[in-house]
Design goal:
By secondary structure, the chain is an alpha/beta fold. Helices cover 36% and strands 22% of the residues. This is 2-polyprenyl-6-methoxyphenol hydroxylase-like FAD-dependent oxidoreductase.
Length: 425
């Protein structure tokens, strides 16, 4: 007997899980507010990356549609502005294998259409809490894969897994043309990091072809807070957002300004101004009609500056998929749901959350002093730079060497000693 599963939300994680279950013969229904044609003409979301591990998962599911279309991202060019440091410090490192970024509107619409073509059901409607309470009686399992609005509030924040849940971040972003390549090359994303805020400039596949995403991140009220560009009604003006970003970079980061001075938005929907709050939430919500399980953004939302959003989504969906398939015909109890989230957390989601916390606090007064030593080494030693940057593709590697002063200093010492004396791990 085919088990009936409802997935509320059609983003990276929800569609990943839906395709995996559909391919295994499950009776899958996806509920989402927008049809594919509406998604294609909506606003972009915060730019995310299919890092190497996420791309492997997409390839296994037959969802890597963009391998020959999207600009390759081979690494990151990092411009650091440490407090009290004269000028900037540069760290340029490569991934072990390439990453890509695809406009959410393109990817989500394509994946959703493909899912329907394969025979899955789609319900195009908003989902209220009262709707959700009814669904456990109709389906064997209900998975909530959207973290916004009232549905996200069903999953309360945890204390023990909170990470950096206490802070908010304003994201001001535009997809544009006319950006000059990173100093490390056209196939590198560029990150500018300072106490003022963070800026990400990355190649991306837009609905019109290759473009760039320019994303400015700051705390509410900070120097790089673009909240004033968000109208009370309607969507932000891409020309105004682009002008403000270019002006802000010219004022605060004159070394970067020449590379963005010629930027122009790709279309009338190219801009986004939003506020996000990283969180870790309890994974199971008890409703009048039964229990529902939260997935990815519904329960774990990492800080966008860590670039781990789609990685967490793909990893979580992969773990959930395996556990559902292995569960056979047994009931999906609240205990099983808790264990499923714990399995995802322990498989690498916690490492992404810890990275999010570490990068958020990098310029805080209480930041660990050894992090400055690591950055200084990465600025001059390519091996350290590649490991520091490459860890973004697998944050579990940071647990082995970065966070504790003793292991970080031992690694740097091993790298700088003659090869015959020590081999870094």
């Amino acid at each position: 007997m085919s088990r009936r599963i409802l997935i509320v939300g059609a983003g990276q994680s929800g569609l990943h899980l839906a395709h995996g279950l559909q391919g295994a013969g499950y009776d899958v229904t996806v509920m989402t507010a927008q049809k594919p044609e509406e998604i294609r003409t909506s606003l972009p979301s915060v730019t995310q990356f299919s890092l190497p591990l996420a791309r492997e998962v997409e390839q296994r599911l037959g969802l890597d549609f963009y391998a020959d279309l999207a600009p390759r991202i081979h690494g990151v060019h990092l411009e650091l502005y440490p407090p009290g440091y004269p000028g900037s410090m540069t760290v340029s490192g490569a991934f072990a294998s390439e990453a890509i970024a695809v406009d959410r509107r393109l990817k989500q619409a394509d994946w959703l259409e493909y899912l329907q073509d394969r025979g899955a059901k789609a319900i195009f409607a908003g989902c209220t809490v009262s709707d959700l309470a009814y669904f456990p009686s109709m389906f064997d399992l209900v998975v909530v894969a959207t973290g916004g609005g009232m549905l996200g509030e069903l999953f309360p924040d945890t204390d023990e897994l909170r990470g950096v849940g206490g802070h908010r971040r304003v994201i001001t972003q535009v997809l544009c043309e006319g950006i000059e390549p990173s100093p490390s090359g056209a196939d590198y994303a560029e990150v500018i990091s300072s106490p003022l805020g963070r800026i990400l400039i990355a190649p991306i596949l837009s609905p019109y072809g290759p473009a760039h995403s320019v994303c400015v991140m700051d705390a509410p009220g900070g120097s790089l807070d673009g909240s004033h560009l968000r109208p009370q009604r309607g969507h932000p003006d891409p020309e105004a957002v682009t002008s403000w970003i270019v002006s802000a970079l010219g004022e605060h980061f004159p070394e970067v300004y020449p590379r963005v001075a010629g930027a122009s938005p790709i279309d009338a929907h190219a801009a986004l101004v939003t506020t996000v709050r990283p969180h870790v939430r309890k994974p199971v919500a008890a409703l009048a009609g039964g229990h529902v399980l939260g997935l990815a953004d519904a329960v774990v939302h990492t800080d966008p500056l860590a670039g781990q959003g789609w990685a967490v989504s793909s990893l979580s969906a992969s773990v959930y998929l395996t556990r559902i398939l292995d569960h056979g015909d047994a009931p999906f109890t609240p205990e099983w749901m808790e264990e499923t989230f714990t399995a995802a957390w322990q498989s690498g989601v916690s490492a992404a959350d810890r990275l999010s916390s570490a990068l958020h606090s990098m310029w805080e007064p209480g930041a660990p002093p050894h992090l400055a030593e690591v950055l200084a080494a990465a600025a001059t030693i390519p091996t350290v730079a590649d490991r520091f940057i490459g860890g973004l593709a697998d944050p579990a590697d940071y647990e082995k060497w970065l966070y504790e002063p003793e292991t970080a200093r031992a690694y740097i010492a091993a790298v700088t000693r003659p090869h015959s004396d020590a081999t870094p791990t």
